[in-house]
Write a structure and sequence with these properties.
By secondary structure, the chain is mostly beta strands. The chain contains five helices and 47 strands.
Length: 895
């Protein structure tokens, strides 16, 4: 039987046509901005005449610890506008005066303890986008972008602030240039606004426009900044050219150490920001450099799926919230990914091709060079939010020595154009958002490596729409998304996509398939493939009791990995969660929650591939410690990917439990501890310990260490799959599994030293050691079964080298010398790496920054499976380091 799109999708979609009634009619606070009657000097003293005419925003209410009670510390905030900027004066009274003010120096947008005040502006007043500006008593800035739903800390507008600590508490005076914000063309405007104040010694968070902990909150419940006169905006251009000097190791493999020479050079590029209308901004970058970005942590991935790493590059992180598609809010979703159409790390990715001929001393580029990229973001006069991105990456070549020692090169990544367009509109007081998105990838191949065209799609497209509807004072919500994808290329490319781990079209026991528009049968002659993805969720999201019910699915042919992140298709997944929130403090906790949920996943053949239930609980205690626990149990179900292209087998169930404890984050030493343990019916087990400690020895110094230990045992680790005509009970396939025990040890260390709000030094280091020991090679007896049989000594023989090390195995499954034997490499592994970088950042003038960067990596490994911490640590530090030194200087030209 074939799984059908659930009827619930049709029923839920009808909710979108229901009247959107019962909007939030509660009065929201308002404050008026007044015209500047005199010049204002930023010094935190408020002694200019202009401030005397402004009525302050007052009457703050606690969010924590006593939600709804008046704030214990008085706050007054005044607003004045001039021709080019909005000025803010905030007086944070403290009943203990200067002694009660707590502060810490940190890098801009970095982690900072102590008191602070945060302004959140909904400049379009459409209850959607927001801009965040925060300052602490030491003058440390935090700002985050205007795209929803998530804040974007890469947004670094050029604004000024001055702070002062005195006998009454502390003050902050801000100047926010209108050129750094986006808003409508109206001369007189009303903005949505929320103001948050945090007082660390009391652990008190107070807010100007109050909502309870069981309310959805957000821009629809903001207060109002009124009577703001904004002059007609002049179009402007901001330039940020940069120069990078670097010393890098060669990108060679297979070369002797004495043949390695460092490379030195300069790179030039720049960023341009142009305001092309009152609310549309064009951002462009030429030859961007991301050397100041922290390196990715080391991992060992034994699954068939790619590891996800978050985007860290500033150009792509900026305004990234606008390009979110199909994002959903889920209490706990363990086995499904959201419907994503854009993953910016595909741009400038590692080259995907290989040299068609054998080569020695291969030199490959680490990433495709981004020749240029541009983004158009903002809003139209009719209220549509727009985001358009285009990027071009260069054709990349690898060089090597041929068999005669002659140097040659071939293309390993073609010239590629990436395009993304996003539009959405929020109406009905923020209760209805409808959007659409389209993506395109087009590649142009060279002529010297014909195998590259058989490896990578020639072009790929996707298009979709999403929606978000709320009603009854936003207590209820219905959201969803649907997208169609198409990928085209050489027949070999499309055949490889059909066989990939995302879908396994060639699985021998798949049901009857069709060759229609959404093709889902294995056909190696195809030159294109199409698929459909969908997601839908209905929920109650406010009150003491909250719940959700969701369905999420991908048809087998859905493929967006050229410009998005996709692990698997061929499923329909359903889940339900219910949660009880306890927000009123008692004699032993401040707030708590308990959650229970179930989920199930079915493929398009009707096989139940996942069925789980779970419970969890979390609480914050009176001493501001936090603790929680989680338990999940999975039933024995079918698995259509365990054999990685072989037939469906049964996968034993398991249970997993975890706990976490975190101490009061205000203290000079903050500790967190997370133990985890799980067992499988077949005898597998997992044990993990994670610990993190943060030390604050001085107001400008932060040190954190995060050691972790992971141990796993599995009874069904995939090893290899062979075509074997004698395996008649398994569709002519011989799928080898094994027992495996893996051990991973990691230690992430960070140090942040801040000398002034504009000068900081950050260090990151991660030693990582992992080993995997394979034993007890085996196979499933039959498809759709649980039973396995282990190969005996007569069936499998280790092959050793002259040193007695096992390098491979010879498998004779039927013990018949006349039939084919199979050989596979010894899968045991030992991986060691040490990654780190140091970044000195100096904002030597507003908007202009100097980076001094050092990066180093040591790596090694061996074909042994035992874990020996002393041996591996010594060999790790004995490994030859690969170091890169870089100087990056940017200069902001704007107004």
């Amino acid at each position: 039987m074939r799984a059908q799109l659930p009827a619930a999708l049709i029923a839920l979609s009808l909710l979108g046509s229901a009247p959107l009634l019962a909007q939030d009619q509660r009065d929201r606070p308002a404050v008026k901005a007044v015209a500047a009657s005199s010049d204002i000097t930023l010094d935190g003293r408020f002694d200019e005449a202009a401030w005397l005419t402004a009525t302050p925003a007052t009457d703050f209410v606690q969010y924590d610890p006593s939600n709804g009670a008046p704030a214990t510390q008085r706050t007054e905030v005044r607003f004045v506008y001039a021709a080019d900027a909005l000025y803010v004066a905030a007086r944070m009274y403290d009943t203990e005066g200067a002694r009660g003010v707590m502060t810490q120096l940190a890098r801009r947008d970095g982690q900072s303890d102590g008191d602070n005040i945060l302004f959140v502006l909904d400049t379009y007043h459409d209850h959607s986008g927001r801009a965040l500006l925060q300052i602490n008593p030491s003058g440390v800035k935090f700002d985050a972008g205007q795209a929803s739903p998530a804040a974007d800390p890469s947004w670094d507008p050029v604004w000024q602030a001055a702070t002062s600590i005195d006998s009454l508490g502390w003050t902050a005076e801000l100047r926010i240039p209108f050129s750094q914000l986006r808003f409508p063309r109206n001369e007189v405007q009303t903005w949505g606004m929320q103001i948050w104040r945090f007082t660390q010694r009391l652990n008190e968070t107070s807010m100007w426009a109050h909502w309870t902990k069981t309310d959805p909150g957000g821009p629809p419940q903001f207060g109002h900044l009124e009577d703001l006169h904004v002059p007609g905006r002049q179009l402007g251009v901001e330039l940020m050219p940069y120069a990078v000097g670097a010393s890098e190791p060669p990108r060679l493999t297979g070369s002797p150490d004495d043949d390695r020479e460092r490379r030195y050079g300069w790179r030039f590029g720049g960023d341009v920001k142009a305001l092309i209308s009152s609310s549309l901004t064009l951002d462009a970058t030429i030859n961007p450099d991301f050397g100041q970005v922290e390196v990715d942590p080391a991992v060992v991935n034994l699954s068939a799926f790619e590891t996800f790493f978050p985007e860290k590059r500033p150009f792509f992180v900026a305004n990234s919230g606008l390009f979110n598609f199909g994002s959903f809010n889920c209490f706990f979703c363990s086995n499904v990914s959201n419907l994503s159409l854009f993953y910016s790390r595909r741009i400038g990715r590692q080259p995907q091709g290989f040299l068609s001929d054998f080569g020695d001393r291969v030199e490959r580029p680490d990433n495709a060079t981004i020749l240029g990229a541009a983004k158009l973001t903002g809003r139209t006069g009719s209220g549509y939010q727009l985001g358009v991105l285009n990027a071009v990456t260069a054709a990349e070549r690898a060089t090597a020595d041929d068999i005669d020692g002659n140097r040659y090169s071939q293309e390993v990544e073609p010239l590629t154009n990436y395009f993304v367009a996003r539009a959405k509109r929020t109406t009905n007081n923020g209760n209805l958002t409808v959007g659409a998105m389209g993506t395109s990838v087009i590649r142009r191949f060279g002529s010297d490596n014909p195998t590259l065209e058989q490896t990578i799609p020639h072009h790929a497209e996707a298009a979709g729409m999403d929606w978000d509807v709320s009603w009854a004072n936003r207590a209820y919500n219905f959201m969803g998304s649907v997208a169609l994808s198409q990928v085209s290329g050489d027949t070999a490319t499309i055949a490889a996509l059909q066989r990939s781990s995302a879908r396994y079209y060639h699985r021998p026991d798949r049901g009857d398939r069709s060759g229609g528009f959404l093709t889902d049968e294995y056909d190696p002659t195809l030159t294109s493939m199409r698929g459909l993805g969908f997601y839908s969720r209905v929920a109650r999201q406010s009150g003491d009791w909250v719940w959700e019910a969701a369905v999420n699915g991908r048809t087998p042919g859905f493929e967006v990995n050229d410009i998005a992140f996709l692990q698997r298709t061929d499923y329909t997944w359903m889940n339900t969660n219910i949660q009880r929130q306890f927000t009123r403090p008692t004699s032993w906790y401040r707030d708590a929650s308990v959650l229970a949920g179930i989920q199930q996943q079915v493929n398009f053949d009707g096989d139940v591939t996942d069925r789980q239930w779970r419970v969890s609980a979390n609480a914050q205690f009176l001493n501001f410690w936090n603790a929680g626990g989680f338990f999940i149990k999975k039933n024995t179900t079918d698995s259509d990917n365990l054999t990685r292209g072989g037939p469906v087998v049964r996968d034993y169930g398991w249970w997993f439990a975890s706990a976490n404890v975190n101490t009061d984050s205000r203290r000079r030493v903050v500790v967190g501890f997370t133990p985890e343990y799980g067992r499988g019916i077949e005898g597998s087990r997992t044990a993990n310990l994670r610990f993190n400690a943060t030390f604050k020895p001085a107001p400008n110094l932060l040190i954190s260490v995060s050691p972790s230990w992971n141990y796993d045992e599995s009874r069904a680790q995939f090893v290899r799959r062979f075509v074997d005509p004698t395996a008649t009970d398994f569709f002519g396939q011989r799928v080898v599994f094994s027992d495996i025990s893996t051990t991973n040890v990691s230690l992430e260390t960070r140090l942040a030293a801040t000398f002034t709000p504009t000068l900081s030094l950050e260090l990151f280091a991660q030693p990582f050691i992992a080993s995997g020991d394979y034993s007890g090679f085996k196979e499933f007896v039959r498809p759709r079964g649980l039973t396995k049989r282990q190969f005996d000594a007569a069936q499998i023989q280790p092959v050793t080298n002259e040193d007695g090390q096992v390098v491979s195995y010879s498998l004779d499954p039927d013990r018949d010398a006349l039939t084919q034997n199979f050989t596979f490499d010894n899968p045991d592994f030992n991986v060691r790496s040490l990654r780190g970088n140091a970044v000195l950042r100096w904002e030597y003038r507003p908007g202009s920054t100097l980076f001094l960067v050092w990066q180093q990596e040591r790596a090694g490994g061996a074909g042994v499976g035992n874990f020996d911490l002393d041996r591996d640590t010594n060999r790790l530090f004995d490994a030859r380091p690969e170091s890169t030194f870089m100087v990056k200087l940017s200069y902001w030209l704007g107004r």
